[in-house]
Amino acid sequence: MIPVVMPTYSRIDVVFERGEGCFLYDTTGRRFLDFTSGIAVNALGHAHPYLVEKLTEQAHKLWHTSNLFRVAGQEKLASRLRELTFADTMFFTNSGVEAWECGVKLVRKYHYETGHPEKTRFIVAGGNFHGRTMTAIAASGQDKMVKGFGPLLDAFDRVAYDNLNELRAAITPETAAILVEPILGEGGMRPASLDYLRALRAICDEYGLLLYFDEIQSGMGRSGKLFAHEWAGITPDVMCIAKGIGGGFPLGACLATEKAAQGMVAGTHGSTFGGNPLAMAVGNAVLDVMTQPGFLDNVIAKGALLQGKLEELVARHPTVLDSVRGKGLILGVKCVTPVGDLVTALRDNGMLVVSAADNVVRILPPLIVGEAEINEAVAILDRTCAALAA
Ligand SMILES: *Cc1c(COP(=O)(O)O)cnc(C)c1O
After folding, report:
1. pLDDT in tens, 30-40
2. How many angstroms separate the CA atoms of 184 and 9, rounded?
3. Nearest to 253, CA basis, from 136, 96, 76
4. Ligand 1 proximal residues by C-beta, below 6 Å
5. Where are the N6-(pyridoxal phosphate)lysine modifications (predicted)?
6. Count of Cβ atoms closer than 10 Å to residue 371 Cβ
7. Crossing angle (nearest 10°) for helices 371-389 and 339-348
């Protein structure tokens, strides 16, 4: 008989009961060091007291009114993100893919409104991942995602990641935007070179294209900047965010400049739940914490500490680990042995990680991770790699 929950995931047979900071406890009372953070979602760890307080406070007042009315929390969060980013305006969603797809619509509308209705196509790069709607699977194009779901939207031209020659050659009169993850997440935790990101900006300006960054995984402090593209000193025209912004509450947003968003007038887009008061209370609370002086500096410091220790592990276990990649606390270790074996062995030893493409294990601790937890993670990794090598 088919499982009552549709079996679209190959789930691990663990049920968690509660979490606290960097730790999760399962229903048998077992404790796990969580270096997955719900795939970069629990940016402030589990049950952060301030987030709990703000969510509870809002829960006692108001949950939902719909977007028929002004929502104070949206206006507050949007104003704050406008101060902190390139964006002039934004649309709130319940998930990453909705935020991403809002950006796809916005890009097409921009060119339609500015006299270029022929510009409808997107250049995407590498093992890009944007979610699981029909449009998003078309953009990723991976066999396991798309097989059997066609016909798909034909609007995406894929080139190699971090490769300008291929990208330039792919531009046609129909190209509307270049759509890139500044740090490739699912595709293998690969940061693009900063020169590449700068060149994308220049190319978009030269050809009249919009630059669209998917920072759903790389954003919200992960890289040590609020958004990873900031390292390159350039700005996109459109950006989708999600994951960390809700700290575990479903929340995403599509941010854009006024120019790029000019076609998104009343009636062009909408969502019943998007930006509801509960989500906005949490989003504002996450931002309260992340904008505290020193928060991002601490991500950079802890990232450097962890990265250094991971490099040492690679040197010590060359038959298991190959190399370290990433930035801040969005790190990956490319494995020699099958990454799935390492993920399972680490879990058996009390540490949770998730794999990415390219035989990479993702290292995504909560951004509040401390030195003690980093040392514990490194000790578990050391022990596990030694056992795998034997
Ligand atoms: C997770 C992710 C998405 C999709 O987010 P959902 O909330 O699962 O829809 C899109 N883009 C990137 C880069 C992601 O990491």
Report:
1. 999 999 999 99
2. 22
3. 96
4. 95-97, 100, 129-131, 181, 185-186, 214, 216-217, 242-243
5. 243
6. 11
7. 120
